[in-house]
Amino acid sequence: MSTRARILFFLPSFSGGGAERTVLNILKNYDKEVFELKVCLLDFDGHYSAMVPEHSILNSLDKGAFSISKSANPLYSLYKFFVFILPTQYRAIKTYDPDIIITVTESMNYISLIWKILGFTQDRIWVIRSGNNILAEAKSKGIVFGNLLMFLLKKAYTKADHIITLTHGAKSEIVSTYMIEESKVSVLGNPVDLEGIALTREEPIEHSYRYILGVGRLVPQKNFSLLLQGYQKSMAPSAGIHLVVLGVGSEQQQLMNLAKELGICSMVHFKGFKKNPYHYMKNAEAFVLSSKWEGFGHVLVEALACECPVISTDCNFGPAEILDNGRFGKLISVVDPLTLADGINATLSLEKEEKQEITARGKERAGNYSVEKIGESYEVLFSKLCRNQ
Q1: Residue 388 in 3-state DSSP?
Q2: Using an 8 Å Cβ cutoff, are 221 and 137 in contact?
Q3: pLDDT, tens digit, for every residue of 104-132?
Q4: Where are the domains of the chain?
Q5: C-alpha to C-alpha distance for 358 and 120, rounded to whole angstroms
């Protein structure tokens, strides 16, 4: 092993997800005297790309070689896989010679399985970061593709040297499903940049109306249709309280059509991706996470850090652990709009003192997921794995 332990992250891009935010926060906060961290990217067009320290990108010279915007074309994706992705990762392994390789998205987990089978990572530690509810995600892809993903998941998770999950619930599922030793799995929540949030949450909002907030990718997993239905059934529209949704995704037009069908389109605002969602959280009457499943629920911690009352579906996995089974926010059914409406009504009806008490507790809770605390846990794990190599 080198004087400083070399850690290499395989990441598709720095788009706007929890995995990307996790890597970004770790890159900005680690002990540079003990570790050397690099990222091998496959696309450079992500929302967070401008925030990444330039020296952290191992393959900066590849910038511009391929584009995310064309990735929907299957022939282009196949060409890119064999001509760019595999050669780029092979070159990164051989030239950087990492002690630990961490794959932080499922697509990278599947690709790294190739290197493990071929023996290119035999003398290196391969760590999988399981950032989502992997079984729920696979099942959502249908019978054929879903079973293929389940097969690949089993191969990847059993062959990896170590696994990081974000919650104890996810750890239990992986251990029981794949018969993996508990010592092979560590629980490390997402690191949240609380100092950065504190600096940006005070920026002014461009509108004056009161609103409830939802943030996330506009995809089936995030279940924004439930949010629209629960909002419509709540007291919020009649009280003049709007609904603001931050995020982009394949379901945007479908959700806009649903808002029209529900008669609330004038009260619902789809504002797209925002680099700074925190001033929206700070000024919201409530934050709602409506997901069918989660790997963690990163935005819940961010909302708590912004002193915003939180309502979340009690989905697997994350919300119940972050909110301590309802102590730091309301947990509601994954499928019932009326329960969500009741949660919204109860939150909007809070007295000023009650609201201040709840948000103060939530802000304190968010401190458990600070970059410093979670980053230190990552460093402890890195050191332990390297010692055992």
Answers
A1: coil
A2: yes
A3: 988 899 999 999 999 989 899 999 999 88
A4: 5-191+370-387, 194-369
A5: 51
Helix (H, G, I), strand (E, B) or coil at 305: helix
Q: What number of residues does the chain have?
A: 389
* Environment class of 54 (CB within 10 Å of its CB; exposed 0-12, middle 13-18, buried 19+): exposed
- Homologous superfamily (CATH) for 194-369: Glycogen Phosphorylase B; (3.40.50.2000)
Bridge-partner residues for 288, per DSSP? 311
Distance between CA atoms of residues 224 and 221, nearest Å:
9
Please name which of 224, 28, 13, 22 lies closest in space to residue 130, comparing C-alpha atoms. 22
User: Which parts of the chain fold into alpha helices (H)?
Assistant: 18-28, 74-80, 86-96, 106-118, 134-139, 143-159, 168-178, 194-200, 224-233, 252-261, 278-283, 298-305, 319-322, 337-348, 352-366, 371-387
How many CA atoms, within 13 angstroms, populate the side-chain half-sphere of residue 130? 32
Contact 246, 214 (CB under 8 A): yes
pLDDT of residue 70: 56
Question: Residues 6 or more apart from 363 whose CB is under 8 A from it?
Answer: 304, 305, 307
CB contact at 8 A, 253 and 221:
no
CATH architecture of 5-191+370-387: 3-Layer(aba) Sandwich (3.40)
Structure tokens at 258: 């649903």
Tell me which amino acid residue 192 is: V
What is the value of pTM for the model shown?
Answer: 0.91
Q: How many CA atoms does the CB half-sphere of 95 hold within 13 Å?
A: 10
Tokens of 73: 């074309």
- pLDDT tens figures, 303-319: 999 999 999 999 999 99
Q: Which one, of 270, 290, 286, lies nearest residue 223 by Cα?
A: 290
How many Å separate Cα 110 from the centre of its chain? Answer: 18
C-alpha angle 16-196-357 in degrees, rounded to nearest 5? 105
Residues 299, 289 contacting (CB under 8 angstroms): yes
The residues, any chain, with a CB within 8 Å of residue 124's CB and separated by 6 or more, are 93, 98, 99, 100, 101
Could you say which DSSP state residue 173 is in? H
pLDDT of residue 71: 60
Identical fold for domains 5-191+370-387 and 194-369, yes or no, is yes
* Helix, coil or strand: residue 38: strand
